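Section 5: illustrative case.
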């Protein structure tokens, strides 16, 4: 993140959090906002992170829904598998065959799942005080914010690291001309000799993203000395 832009981004996040704390009733989003934002000046080693991935019924948060959530905490630059969770979410609408063909989640898998309003507090609790980590984080942020607007009439002002953008920056600095598919999670992992995992499983993708980030952070410098602000997206 540009050093000149970071203070402005922090100001915007703090302003939105203050606005929400003043306007929201007592609910899970308000509880989430009670914890301060992670300090951008602290080292990445000292920063709590949550690697998260969503599976959805499509790409449009206005008409599509979250049907699976996977997340795993990262503390002291160690992936804490004991804290990993994979949660299926029962949608309001139907799961189209085109989406099921990608992630393999059928309506029959979701009949006993809880609805989004029941599981979203668990997501907020896991994220509280942490930085969100995702591959192509724009997608996760779009659906998480849509859920917050629907459930709590608010947004989710959080700090975010995007492994896709970190990889894009690295390749561009090397003068690489990016081709279609070069920034896919599996391709990014392959370049770093990380093992291949099954794609489109929310928990496996969250773990895969976490592992990719650990290698990115290691190559960026000593995690003990490298500040969080060096990894954040705008």
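Designed sequence:
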């Amino acid at each position: 993140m540009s050093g000149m832009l970071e203070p402005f981004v922090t100001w915007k996040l703090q302003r939105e959090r203050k606005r929400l704390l003043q306007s929201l009733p007592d609910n899970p989003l308000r509880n989430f906002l009670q914890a301060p934002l992670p300090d951008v000046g602290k080292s990445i080693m000292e920063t709590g992170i949550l690697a998260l991935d969503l599976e959805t019924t499509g790409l449009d948060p206005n008409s599509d829904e979250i049907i699976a959530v996977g997340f795993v905490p990262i503390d002291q630059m160690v992936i804490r598998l004991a804290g990993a969770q994979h949660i299926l979410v029962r949608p309001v609408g139907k799961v189209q065959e085109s989406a099921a063909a990608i992630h393999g989640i059928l309506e029959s898998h979701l009949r006993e799942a809880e609805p989004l309003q029941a599981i979203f507090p668990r997501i907020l609790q896991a994220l509280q005080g942490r930085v969100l980590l995702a591959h192509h984080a724009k997608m996760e942020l779009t659906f998480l914010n849509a859920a917050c607007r629907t459930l709590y009439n608010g947004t989710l002002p959080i700090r975010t690291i995007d492994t896709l953008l970190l990889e894009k920056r690295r390749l561009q600095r090397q003068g690489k001309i990016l081709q279609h598919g070069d920034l896919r999670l599996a391709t990014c992992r392959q370049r770093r000799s990380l093992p291949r995992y099954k794609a489109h499983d929310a928990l496996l993708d969250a773990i895969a993203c976490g592992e990719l980030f650990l290698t990115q952070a290691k190559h960026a410098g000593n995690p003990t000395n490298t500040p969080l602000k060096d990894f954040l997206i705008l």
